[in-house]
């Protein structure tokens, strides 16, 4: 069984800060910054792209409420909200989860860096990716 499913069903303890019939929010055991929280559905989905639309909408609305609460209680100046999909993107547990990572200043333990890749022909790329 997946470790997050075990947390969701209560068979593995976690420091939960919110729970209802559909989701659980708990403190990440590897706190990147104070208050780093994971929000997960109780039902198993491998990642964001596989999650049921109705549950995804519900989870994200609750994540927004929980994120605001964390910022208010911790005094964080900002927050990263992210979900990795598959190992290539850094997903280490194959159960959909959203990270709420409070940010306090540029010197806290969270460092996310974006670098520009090689130039792309955006017109061709847009045509290729159009939905």
Q: What does this entry show, briefly?
A:
This protein is of the alpha+beta class and 131 residues long.
Describe the overall structure.
It is a single chain. The protein is α+β, with helices and mostly antiparallel strands. The protein contains three helices and five strands; from the N terminus they run αβββαββα. The chain has helices at residues 3-8, 53-74, 122-129, and strands spanning 16-19, 23-27, 37-41, 78-82, 98-103. A five-stranded antiparallel β-sheet has the order 1-2-3-5-4. Strand 1 (16-19) and strand 2 (23-27) form a beta hairpin. The longest helix is centred in the middle third of the chain and has 22 residues, at 53-74. It is globular.
Essential attributes:
about 130 residues, five-stranded antiparallel sheet, globular
**Uncertain stretches:** none
| Annotation field: number of helices | 3
Q: In angstroms, what is the radius of gyration?
A: 17 Å
Strand line-up in the sheet with most strands = 1-2-3-5-4
Largest sheet: 5 strands, antiparallel
Structural class: alpha+beta
The sequence of SSEs as H and E is: HEEEHEEH
Ends apart, CA distance between termini = 36 Å
How many beta strands in the DSSP annotation? Answer: 5
Q: Please state roughly what percent of the residues sit in beta strands, choosing from under 5%, 5-15%, 15-25%, 25-35%, 35-45% or over 45%.
A: 15-25%
Percent range for helical residues? 25-40%
Q: Calculate the mean pLDDT score and round it.
A: 96
Shape: globular
């Amino acid at each position: 069984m997946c470790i997050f499913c075990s947390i969701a069903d209560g068979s593995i303890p976690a420091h939960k800060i919110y729970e209802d019939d559909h989701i659980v929010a708990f403190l990440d055991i590897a706190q990147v910054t104070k208050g780093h929280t994971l929000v997960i559905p109780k039902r198993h989905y491998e990642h964001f792209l596989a999650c049921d639309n109705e549950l995804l909408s519900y989870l994200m609305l609750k994540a927004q409420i929980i994120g605001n609460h964390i910022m208010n209680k911790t005094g964080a100046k900002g927050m990263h909200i992210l979900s990795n999909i598959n190992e290539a993107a850094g997903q280490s547990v194959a159960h959909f989860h959203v990270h709420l990572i409070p940010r306090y200043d540029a010197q806290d333990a969270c460092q996310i860096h974006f670098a520009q890749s090689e130039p792309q022909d955006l017109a061709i790329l847009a045509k290729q990716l159009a939905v």
